[in-house]
Amino acid sequence: MLAGFLLLLLHTAVDGESTCSYQDVLNYLNLTKNNELYSMTRPVKDYTHPTQVSLEVLLYAILDVVKIDQTFVPYVWIFTKWQNEHIYWNPNDFCGIKTVSLPAEILWKPDIIIEEMTEKDKAPLSPHLTIDSNGLVHVQDDQVLVSTCRMHIFKFPFDIQSCKLSFKSVVHSVSEIQLVRHLNSSQATEWSREVMRTQYEWLFINLTVTNKTVSMFDFQQDVMIYTITMKRRSLLYIVNFILPILFFFLLDLASFLISDSGGEKLSFKVTVLLAVTVMQLILNDILPSSSDRIPLIALYCIGIFALMMLSLLETILVMYLMEKVSASEDNNSRGEKKLTHCACICDVSSDGTPTELQKGSISQLKEESHAEELREVLEMLAVLLNSRKEEAKPEYWTRIFSG
Amino acid sequence: MLAGFLLLLLHTAVDGESTCSYQDVLNYLNLTKNNELYSMTRPVKDYTHPTQVSLEVLLYAILDVVKIDQTFVPYVWIFTKWQNEHIYWNPNDFCGIKTVSLPAEILWKPDIIIEEMTEKDKAPLSPHLTIDSNGLVHVQDDQVLVSTCRMHIFKFPFDIQSCKLSFKSVVHSVSEIQLVRHLNSSQATEWSREVMRTQYEWLFINLTVTNKTVSMFDFQQDVMIYTITMKRRSLLYIVNFILPILFFFLLDLASFLISDSGGEKLSFKVTVLLAVTVMQLILNDILPSSSDRIPLIALYCIGIFALMMLSLLETILVMYLMEKVSASEDNNSRGEKKLTHCACICDVSSDGTPTELQKGSISQLKEESHAEELREVLEMLAVLLNSRKEEAKPEYWTRIFSG
Amino acid sequence: MLAGFLLLLLHTAVDGESTCSYQDVLNYLNLTKNNELYSMTRPVKDYTHPTQVSLEVLLYAILDVVKIDQTFVPYVWIFTKWQNEHIYWNPNDFCGIKTVSLPAEILWKPDIIIEEMTEKDKAPLSPHLTIDSNGLVHVQDDQVLVSTCRMHIFKFPFDIQSCKLSFKSVVHSVSEIQLVRHLNSSQATEWSREVMRTQYEWLFINLTVTNKTVSMFDFQQDVMIYTITMKRRSLLYIVNFILPILFFFLLDLASFLISDSGGEKLSFKVTVLLAVTVMQLILNDILPSSSDRIPLIALYCIGIFALMMLSLLETILVMYLMEKVSASEDNNSRGEKKLTHCACICDVSSDGTPTELQKGSISQLKEESHAEELREVLEMLAVLLNSRKEEAKPEYWTRIFSG
Amino acid sequence: MLAGFLLLLLHTAVDGESTCSYQDVLNYLNLTKNNELYSMTRPVKDYTHPTQVSLEVLLYAILDVVKIDQTFVPYVWIFTKWQNEHIYWNPNDFCGIKTVSLPAEILWKPDIIIEEMTEKDKAPLSPHLTIDSNGLVHVQDDQVLVSTCRMHIFKFPFDIQSCKLSFKSVVHSVSEIQLVRHLNSSQATEWSREVMRTQYEWLFINLTVTNKTVSMFDFQQDVMIYTITMKRRSLLYIVNFILPILFFFLLDLASFLISDSGGEKLSFKVTVLLAVTVMQLILNDILPSSSDRIPLIALYCIGIFALMMLSLLETILVMYLMEKVSASEDNNSRGEKKLTHCACICDVSSDGTPTELQKGSISQLKEESHAEELREVLEMLAVLLNSRKEEAKPEYWTRIFSG
Amino acid sequence: MLAGFLLLLLHTAVDGESTCSYQDVLNYLNLTKNNELYSMTRPVKDYTHPTQVSLEVLLYAILDVVKIDQTFVPYVWIFTKWQNEHIYWNPNDFCGIKTVSLPAEILWKPDIIIEEMTEKDKAPLSPHLTIDSNGLVHVQDDQVLVSTCRMHIFKFPFDIQSCKLSFKSVVHSVSEIQLVRHLNSSQATEWSREVMRTQYEWLFINLTVTNKTVSMFDFQQDVMIYTITMKRRSLLYIVNFILPILFFFLLDLASFLISDSGGEKLSFKVTVLLAVTVMQLILNDILPSSSDRIPLIALYCIGIFALMMLSLLETILVMYLMEKVSASEDNNSRGEKKLTHCACICDVSSDGTPTELQKGSISQLKEESHAEELREVLEMLAVLLNSRKEEAKPEYWTRIFSG
Predict the structure, then answer these.
(1) Does the predicted model carry a pTM greater than 0.90?
(2) ipTM of the predicted structure?
């Protein structure tokens, strides 16, 4: 190493005329890869000096917001700046060199982490940093942050989410590292809007910054919290999910116009119910399962499902009652039919009016004989009707009965 | 290196007034990246001293619990602390410096692993650690642990899971590394509740800690087991899966009111069955396949499926029998009809009562001729009926027959 | 190290006849792994010299274009070239050696990043680079770039996408690093076409290059933007999705030919609607959710869905009205039937023509009694008809009524 | 370095009383990070000594068995042990220190790989190893092995899989590295059962070990093959897939009881077929596609599908034939009906018996006129019937015909 | 380092009797981790010597072939061999040591890449390589290659794919690195067959090797192309997808036997169409979207879909026409019926034959009145019939009409 060092001196001496070279600055600072003064400890001359770390965050893109995992993946530009007290040179001594860019790993860096971050940065790290002649170190990192974010999906898909990014040091107290910033919330929002590329299915609303000092186990730390607020673009969910289900509900309502007598009403209603079940496969895909309240969209879905089912049950009951009534009519009228038939033939010689009279009296008899049965039925229906007020035409099928 | 070292001494001498610098402490300790005293072996002066490693774990978030792979992904904060006997300085000699933070890789660290962990930590590791003047080394790691956890899904989705995190050294025996802790179970639970962010679809219940010494191949080791207990939020599973299937079952029950005579009952019941089959696509997605007992939810699903099928089979049988009966009635009554028809005309001149009498006697004959056939049928139905008690109206369709 | 160095000299002296060895060049340049002159700072002798970085990009493959994440994954060949002013040798002194290939990590490299890149390069990096005798450094990298790209999916699947790759330095200003290129847009397109392997589901259209200087926070930087334009191959989407839905729509149109009287029309139409719902499961898979405008394909789908539903509602209404009319006909004609029946028998002694006359007059009466009811119905239908002009045979079912 | 070394000596001299320190052992062995004696070559004094590597594998968990990729992911504990001939110390000279634990990367390790392994280990590697005073090196690794495994899915889901893990050196021949073990197959099985945590959907059966020497390109190598045998827990597959399909088959069989005359039989059977098609979506998910034989479960599924289709075709044919017969009956009997009707009236004055006789003779005529048609039909049915023996009631519908 | 070196000499002198140690060879060669002679440049003494790299590739497993991404993942064994001219020793001087194995990173390695490779190798790299006494370096790597491969899916699932692996140096021209091989195509195929483990869903056919020299930008390079040809095992695709769709087509064909008069034909055909739609969900999963030609299987699917739809439209048309005809018949025959009915009664006193005659003449009249209507219908049908020849029984339903 001694020999290597001497050779190096020799070599730089050979092309010694290059006094404007960056290497001269590094030589002056003795800033080499192995100089532990620069990489081991916080770069202050007096340990009581806190290192002020300036931190600016711009939101470049919203890459992903995974409902299922409650994961938020923004792509941010982080500009960090701090004072390294071991670095100082007079630019005039070095042809006016004011800044030098260096490999990032040779200098101490503050251990700022984002509390919510759950995966190592996936984007390529910046390999270089820049130092100023007065000791300021500038680092720019473009980071893809996989962070956890508690989402409120009650109003899904009309929800607004706020995700936090809490920057803090891991091991340094507030007396060692202090976090400062120059852009305020509205400036950060404005700049972010300018550089923003893709926003996924979200509409970026704003970016707010707050500083605070938290203490845990009697250990005071500076925390800078960036809160990203965004609104979901719900258009496609409406078109793909909410509208079709609403359509099916309209169909189900419309089915009250279908005659109860044939079998097609039942078949129609149960097929519509099947289609809603298929839609539920989609709901199962898009909805996160991590909620303590049922999301409105699930209530909407299960509510429509339940209404359809109730109306289906009602249809079945009405059909059953109608059939029962007509069955007893049949029993009575079979004999009667023969009577009237015969009567009809019997009456060919007389006029038609007695037949009318006769039929009337017979049906009167029939209705009397089934009076107690019908009364039971109507009581059941009364109970059933009270339980559903939301459907528009309850009078429709009662009219069928009483009419 | 010699030259570099001399230069370094020179350089620090140049700004020699900085006696409050961290670097002075490191120089005093001779703590450099290459000093193998600090990084190679367990930092004790006498090898018989065990190193006591203090370990505190707080649960910051539950990121994922994958049923299919039996994987549990908590995000924990791990605070580790141990004594490095090579480190000691008098803070008074160094302007009162009591702690120094250093790059994490230059000191020996205990090889504590989590037995259940199946993937390398994905979260960014803390780059720094802190040393005290009396030799205590503090490390804080925020780790995303992908760990395996045996889940009991018998009661899914009303299950409570307990996942263990067993901390132990890989190669050190209990005489070398001992695990201690300061927070007890209730304190750890309380602190975790305080820092907890997202809980995925789970409700964190508690965190218990137990210490024990295990021996394997005559090798004694300290193990500290953190057990995280949590309860699944089952609300969405009820709304999305259990309720719809229950609704379909109600529909199927209600279908007993539909008349057996038309084709719509069959069509109705088989469509409801098809809808339950579509729901089974969802079950296949949400249910893990790794169970030795069938989960209750699968039993619920297949049970309802089976009941529906039985009732469908019954309907088919009843329809078959009714048709058979009516077919033989038809055969007999065709001739009879003509008889009565003719008779009716024949009797126009006489009174209507003999016709009634005649018809009665004929149907009596008909019933006698099919008596043995009906007896067989009723025996079959008796067997069938005994096999199903859970359905409410078994007397309904028997009445149809006997009525 | 001194000893090692002396030994090395000794060793190379032993086989000293090898004056044509690459090692001689490196020795002359003192280019070793630890020589920080080569790896620490921008390789210029005068810091005012900007480093011109020549950058050529060829598109080798389009690996993936994920609509959901708005991610574009091209596989590109990047040829980078710049001047290292510390490197120079006379080939004649070294047997004519003009180029030497070296491990890539021992020389300074410009910190060129691609702004849109969101993941570290997955392809293996080239381990070697080449230096020229006049100091030019050549690097060739085959990179799989996972980049974000704002997609316009309004015309999906007939869309053309343009994705940008913006090359720029992270920390160097335009006075330090300048980006130049030798291939123009058409040459880059031509070369790319030649080397292109797979294009995924896309048809590569062209590759355009633009240079510009941007300024941010008063910091001027050179940016070179490669724009890749490509067209989606929509054939399979037509065959798998658009055609089947169109077919179902045709079926639904054709169902106007089915008689309204039976139940099969309803059942037919609702099954076709169910099939379209199943197709929507596919749409949900292929469509990105990140759009501020509804894509045409979703409009197409929901539009056809809505038309089908309207026609279904109409069918139900028509059936209801028909039934109502026939029910009132029935009420009137029941009495009437007996009359005509009897009349028929009554008329056996007279001729058949009066019966015709009689029936006519009765139906006239019937139509008069329901005239006000029908008028209401026709007004409702008129409103309904105005709302749908796209269906070909609106006169069909009105004719049924009026006919 | 020289200076550093001297300082180090000085420092340890300062606290010279610590003769029981691990560092003393390392100093005695000159075991530093840069001593290439320990890390470069196989640690034997005479190159003809083979290094015996003792290898014990315990199965801690079965994490995943992916049918689609034929991937097997066990979590194993691997205990490796070998002799490093450069290491020896007398414990008595060092206060009785018998073992020292060291960072794993500073010693030579055998290049044992697992041939089937397709991904780098995902679990965190043990950072330490242990050396004995007599030179034995102990390494314990907890590895998650993503390995390829040829699966035999013919009997799925009742299959038993055997996956191999073949441990061998990459470049060392049998004269350099020999693999030995101390646990036999039954001991390894027993220990594995004891430590086993999760078994995914599998039931661990046993673990067998075999040693052999293979030669490739005249290069002899020791291979140790651990074979893990496990049985799939098929319960859930039965409940979720096999039972529902069987149920549908039963329904299809039962549908033979439904009358052929109405349309509901067809509708019923085709809906059941549709439900089986939905089940096939699940089969497509769970079945690997990499088989040269069709798995039994696919045969089961397609077989039931085919049987259902055949019975459906048969139903259609029978209905067609019945309709044809009745159509020709209708043609003939229309005239006939009028005859009998009239005849009935005609016969009012005479007795009823001749009508019976007359009707009999007419139907006789009718049957004669269709005799040749029926014969053709019955021949077709005979062919059809021979092709299906598995269904229970072939006589049912033939009786309908002949009856 | 000097001190360390002297100590090392001392230490090896202490056990100086070990003259058969590998370390002696390394000391003779001065082969240390820091000797840049071995790791920096191409190991030739005269730069004009090209380095011949011998490359043998065996296919160990086909792990994955992803249609969607056009990704091919083989697991290959790559045996590489080249001459390092700096390495030479006389085995006789070192107890007969002929080969030494070393950590892989300390020697120069050719920068051979595989052009198609899109991800870094996932399998663990071999940590060691072997050197011969005459300077040959042997490296064996087991690599999982994630490579891109242009697939031809036109004939899917009966396709044969050929995927290339093009080995070439990144920066070295043909005058620096030459690629040679010893196994020819048939030998490589044979050896691969022998070591092959899993083949995924493919059947390995053969492995061909070709050498060529390509030039790009006037830069000549050696390329060695291994082409792996394999055939898809299509059995499961036939069983799971092609057969079921064919079955549905047969059902649809068979539905021509169902009577047009009832509603069940329509319901049957549309349910079969729905089942085919569900099958299309599977097609959407298994088919890649990256094709310029529509794959045969998609044509098959959409073709059958279209045929079914046409036959469904036809059925609807036929039903419409039949209904229209019968409706006009009804209008005419209503009056007529009464006539015949009355006539029948009228004729009771006369004989039955005139009724026959009368009915005949009436139906004759009826057919005449509808003659022009039927002619139009038949012309439409003729057009329709010409458009479909593939269905077997077009005469069936025309006969219904004309009959």
Answers:
(1) no
(2) 0.75
